[in-house]
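Backbone-to-sequence.
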């Protein structure tokens, strides 16, 4: 009882401090609505009782019932989705291991390689069948009703600005790619996709979006790009296209970059340099532990820099590009916690963050990075505030011009204002 009384006394003291009146209090609705100043926010509420979209705009909140959505349905779809992605990851690892071990005409190593290649082909085919079906289901059950309720029913005319929409999923929906929902086949009339109607971003909470819109303090030093590049990480498959990203970035930021490459890209170096850079780009392997997501992170030369490591410090960052696998997928035990590396960087101060929802090919990551940075530097200076638009344009290019399958472009996501 004495400790409880002391706690209450200390909280009252804190709340008397300037700017801390709302300390540990639930925010008022009028304090949250300004988060939608630049576009609506679709907060998708998931529960066993019913599921609804809460459409947040500066004038208030509009509930939209989602009768075609249930908790069990989301769990079933999510488990199937995660299972397929895990099988692809496992088959990919086994294939690369078998390829490294194959020796000429040695029958046993050749057989293992052939079996691994066949298993990988089957897993990829399963993924490429599952994903379009998942995207169509999310359109029918969630995204279509949300966009219709917002009046976002068509593709903007040429020359017209693209509307923005922020997704704030909850529960197991945090694991699914809402930004890519839709019918992306040639048989369906154009426009029945999120990608064709809005520029999507994610936010873990309304408060996080509000905070990200606050102006950055003046930079103590010259604004620089931290480039972390690991084409060859000990014990892991090589990433040859990482060299393309390094060359691109060192060219664009010729006199304004810090390069940590291979053996110099250690956990200590990254954690030391990160708070001193407004911009950061990571080209390396990434990993996620769905059972304990705080252990996921970036696989550097000496060890993994985990979500827990990143979360221990605050940053005055403006832009981070995580060209690594599984940096924007959280956990399955506490999906509402939104524990991802993207969210960790966002919460700790990086305004604009681009990451991936599952394992991506390094050539696809390099291509997206090239498209995004080309767009962000098109005016002759780096404009991170256009990150969501740049990523949206890159994904449209891959889908429409390159005719890339959904598995190539769907994983890339933007979090921030």
């Amino acid at each position: 009882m004495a400790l409880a009384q002391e706690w209450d006394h200390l909280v009252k003291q804190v709340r008397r401090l300037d700017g801390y009146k709302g300390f540990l209090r639930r925010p008022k609705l009028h304090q949250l609505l300004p988060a939608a100043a630049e576009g609506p926010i679709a907060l998708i509420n998931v529960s066993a009782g019913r599921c609804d979209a809460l459409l947040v705009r500066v004038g208030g909140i509009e509930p939209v019932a989602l009768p075609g959505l249930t908790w069990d349905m989301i769990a079933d779809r999510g488990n199937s989705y995660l299972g397929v992605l895990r099988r692809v990851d496992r088959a990919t690892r086994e294939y690369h291991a078998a390829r490294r071990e194959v020796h000429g005409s040695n029958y046993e190593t050749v057989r293992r390689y052939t079996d691994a290649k066949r298993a990988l082909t089957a897993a990829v085919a399963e993924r490429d069948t599952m994903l379009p079906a998942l995207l169509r289901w999310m359109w029918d059950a969630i995204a279509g009703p949300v966009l219709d309720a917002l009046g976002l029913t068509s593709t903007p005319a040429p020359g017209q600005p693209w509307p923005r929409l922020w997704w704030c999923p909850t529960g197991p929906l945090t694991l699914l790619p809402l930004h890519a929902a839709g019918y992306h086949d040639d048989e369906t009339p154009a426009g029945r996709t999120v990608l064709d109607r809005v520029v999507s971003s994610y936010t873990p909470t309304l408060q996080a979006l509000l905070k990200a819109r606050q102006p950055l303090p003046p930079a103590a030093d010259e604004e620089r790009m931290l480039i972390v590049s690991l084409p060859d990480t000990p014990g892991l498959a090589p990433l040859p296209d990482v060299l393309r990203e390094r060359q691109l970035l060192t060219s664009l930021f010729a006199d304004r970059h810090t390069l940590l490459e291979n053996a110099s890209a250690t956990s200590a170096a990254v954690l030391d340099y990160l708070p001193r850079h407004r911009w950061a780009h990571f080209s390396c392997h990434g990993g996620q532990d769905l059972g304990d997501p705080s252990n996921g992170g970036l696989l550097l030369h000496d060890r993994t820099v985990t979500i827990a490591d990143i979360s221990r410090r605050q940053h005055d960052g403006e832009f981070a590009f995580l060209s690594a696998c599984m940096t924007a997928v959280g956990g399955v035990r506490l999906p509402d916690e939104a524990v991802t590396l993207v969210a960790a960087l966002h919460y700790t101060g990086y305004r604009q963050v681009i990451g991936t929802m599952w394992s991506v090919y390094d050539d696809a990551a390099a291509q997206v990075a090239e498209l995004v940075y080309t767009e962000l530097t098109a005016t002759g200076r780096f404009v991170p505030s256009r990150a969501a638009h740049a990523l949206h344009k890159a994904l449209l290019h891959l889908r429409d011009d390159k005719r890339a399958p959904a598995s190539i472009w769907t994983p890339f996501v933007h979090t921030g204002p």
